[in-house]
Amino acid sequence: MSTVLVCSVASGRARLNVPWLRARPGCAGLVDDRLTGMYGFRALRIFPRTGSVVIWMAPEELDVDRLVAALEEAPPASAPAKPTRSTPDSSTGEVARLVVGGAVLALVALRRLLGRPRLSLGSSGFLGVITVFTGLPFFRGALRSLRGRSSPGTDTLVTAATVISLVLRENVVALTVLWLLNIGEFLQTLTLRRTRRAIEDLLTIGEERVWLVREAGVEVEVDLDDIEPGDVVAVYEHHRIPVDGHVVHGEALVDQAAVTGEALPVYARDGSHVYAGTIVTSGSLTVRADAVGRDTTVGRIISRVEEAQSDRAPIQTVATRFTQRFVPVSFALAALTYVVTRDARRAMTMLLIACPCAAGLATPTAISAAIGNGARRGTLIKGGTHLEGIGRVTAVVFDKTGTLTFGRPLVTSVVTLSDTFTADEVLSLAASGELHARHPLAQAIVAHTEEQHLQVPIHQACEVVLGMGMRAELDGTRLLVGSPALLRQNGVDLTDDAQSWTDRLRGAGETVICLAHDQDLIGMLGVSDAVRAGAETVIQQLRDLGVSRVLLLTGDAPETAQVVADALGITEVHAHALPEAKLQLIRDLQAEGHTVAMVGDGTNDAPALALADVGITMGEHSSHVALETADIALAGNDLRQVPAVVELSRHTLRVVRQNYGLAIGVNLLGLVAGAGGSMNPVLAALLHNTSSIAVVGNSARLVNHTPHLPRVTDDIVTPAPLEERRVR
């Protein structure tokens, strides 16, 4: 039985899992050697960390069985490590083309500024050589098209423009087009490499050495790679849990936001299930490993990200569609003219008129201007295809925690249950009890008290009750600050009125913090992950822009998710969603024919961000993997930039279409005149230069375009649902 697993086979693409590759990633280059010489082989992408190999081939010339057979035999242990060429670690070639092309263009610009616009024959030859060097990747792509290995695309368009520009000795125009296109290609390649490095960093879980608990409770520090399922590890405060498993001893608060998306830490004790990559914020745990390495939840996230990146359908750009239709027609018309008239000069003139320089400039100039426009407003767009893609979205999926909400607890309600204490006094006493606690809820209460400029009494003694709250001594009185369970444990019962408020606060998605003063329950605080200001307006503007479906997706509890959805007018809610469920939702929407944008910020969002047609991350607090995986990053936390970038994309697409309209209009006019013999090559060159200038000028308008942003008149935090009953 073969050890190589066929994971999926689609039209012209196969995904295989090669076990020996995962065990020895340094030998990934052997995969290149075994496959690249096969007849029908086209392209290859290797993911050594997970042992996955994605192959593109001509299905009528190369079948999957031959691929499996080629990769079946594991290399001998003595085989030297060999890096793969499919995922190069160096970008020397791309950088060299950018640097050389940019330097030459700068010299040409300086020459013209000094009043020496004319180039000698030697200078023109030098520019021609530099142009050819800069355009090598595009020329190779065009050659593949000529050989029938791929359909005509942007490479064909660029090559045709370059060749004819060189014939016309318009080397500067050709070099400018190639240099702009190389910038876009380099940014996309760089993003893929940085994403791969981020994923590899994630695989380490952040802990290279862990404490293994042996017999008699002896702890020994070992490498993480030595841990196997069934082993018991000890995890201490402020350390990451290195395995998926269940707690066999201890209790702790665990921050699981990276995996589940929950904003607040969870209380873990004997029997609780914990995830690798989550952080013990207080306490300590002894955990029996159920899964390690790539079999953990974080490991599966890595695999899903890599699968999503390779399975993602490419966006067909305006330039691709134009090239597939216009370039072949132009050459066919020139050939037909020659056949009918037997006049080579007339056919050549038609080719000069049809030279797609203006068309070659149509997309890159508009895209460059739009990307610069977005960057000025704090929106990083990682390539022209992503800018085009966001303009076509019909469904937007929002993560809740850290995206629609702040991702951190805030005090949103204060209720006083005693005639003796005001709401401000309840808040101050609660802050006194929580003053030295490190729980995020405690820190939220103290911070809110300081924001209200209230004085916090200093307690004389305090005790942490893990998972419940705090006990404190203040001027001879005892304070209890924490959950209702803490009060019951200390003999304080909740009255019917208090129970009613507890139910109402929890129904509004708030965590209830009770305050007892000398055995009397005097007040309650509601703490929640507050909705961002203006989020409701953002959702409505997306609908106004034609987005037919807006969905809320979260790993949080359904009750909490529903409160946020109701506040924002979102009707489709998916709660308790782990990374696999988020990934499946994106697939389902795409299967329904939607172009999907995913907006998220956490590691658990990374697979969905990678698979979505366009992934958008909130940059300020986003995880490293989410930032590298997403196609668009918002440097700040202004949600209004989401509809703004959609509007910018649509305006850019309109400008691109206008550019192509200009280019096609001029070309058609010239083709008719050229076919009739009323235009010479000099006039043809002048005509096509005019269209190029018009295209650049039209694109330049995007630099100063200002997308409409909805006004936000609310405070920083959207009022809590019970704000009108804040003080009783």
Task: Please tell me about this protein's structure.
- The protein has 728 residues and is of the alpha+beta class.
- 47% of the residues lie in helices and 19% in strands.
- The chain contains 26 helices and 24 strands.
- The strands form four sheets. Strands 5, 6, 7, 8, 9, 10 and 11 form a seven-stranded antiparallel sheet that branches. A seven-stranded mixed sheet has the order 12-24-23-22-13-20-21, sandwiched between helices. It has a six-stranded antiparallel sheet with strand order 14-19-18-17-16-15.
- Helix 13 packs antiparallel against helix 25 (641-675).
- It is globular, with a radius of gyration of 31 Å.
- The N and C termini lie far apart (73 Å).
- Residues 712-728 have low confidence and may be disordered.
Task: Map the helices and strands.
Elements: E1 5-10, E2 13-17, H1 19-23, H2 29-35, E3 41-47, E4 52-57, H3 64-72, H4 92-113, H5 121-134, H6 136-146, H7 154-167, H8 171-203, E5 209-213, E6 219-223, E7 232-235, E8 244-255, H9 257-260, E9 266-268, E10 273-274, E11 279-291, H10 297-311, H11 318-341, H12 344-354, H13 357-376, E12 379-381, H14 384-390, E13 395-399, H15 400-404, E14 410-416, H16 423-433, H17 440-451, E15 461-465, E16 469-474, E17 477-482, H18 484-489, H19 496-507, E18 511-517, E19 520-528, H20 535-544, E20 549-553, H21 558-568, E21 572-574, H22 579-591, E22 596-600, H23 606-611, E23 614-618, H24 624-629, E24 632-634, H25 641-675, H26 681-700
Parallel strand pairs: 13-20, 13-22, 20-21, 22-23, 23-24
Antiparallel strand pairs: 1-2, 2-4, 3-4, 5-6, 5-7, 7-11, 8-9, 8-10, 8-11, 12-24, 14-19, 15-16, 16-17, 17-18, 18-19
Helix pairs in contact: 4-5, 4-8, 5-8, 6-7, 7-8, 7-11, 8-10, 8-13, 11-12, 11-25, 12-25, 12-26, 13-25, 13-26, 14-25, 16-17, 25-26
